[in-house]
TrEMBL record:
The keyword Methyltransferase is assigned to this record: no
Chain segments annotated as transmembrane: none
GO cellular component terms, semicolon-separated: endoplasmic reticulum membrane; plasma membrane
Recorded coiled-coil stretches: none
Protein name in the entry: Long-chain fatty acid transport protein 4
Single GO molecular function: long-chain fatty acid transmembrane transporter activity
Family statement drawn from the similarity comment of this UniProt entry: Belongs to the ATP-dependent AMP-binding enzyme family.
UniProt keywords, alphabetically: ATP-binding, Ligase, Nucleotide-binding
GO biological process: long-chain fatty acid import into cell
Length: 94
């Protein structure tokens, strides 16, 4: 998963996919994207990674936008609770 701070809503997912395809091998491209308004930091300006790891990618827990990379279309698709369940049960293969 990759966390991206997008405060003004200017993130272009199609361009991001193209740039990653050009610059990164398939195994290095993030399967999940979490688009956030801000990052939680500690008092010493470190990321609160443990909190992010505990939340995982369950859209019922996370209030940020979450996308997953569909391997067939090679596009990031918004992750809904229904799609989350399909991923967990293996109906959607990543």
């Amino acid at each position: 998963m990759c966390g991206i701070v997008d405060t003004d809503g200017s993130l272009d997912l199609e361009r991001l996919v193209k740039d990653m395809a050009r610059d990164l091998p398939k195994y290095a491209r993030p399967v999940f994207l979490r688009v956030m308004d801000s990052l939680d930091m500690t008092g010493t300006f470190k990321l609160k990674k443990v909190d992010l790891q505990k939340e995982g990618y369950d859209p019922s827990i996370i209030k940020d936008k979450i996308y997953y990379l569909d391997p067939k279309s090679e596009k990031y698709i918004s992750l809904s609770p229904d799609e989350y369940e399909k991923i967990k049960t293996g109906q959607i293969r990543l």
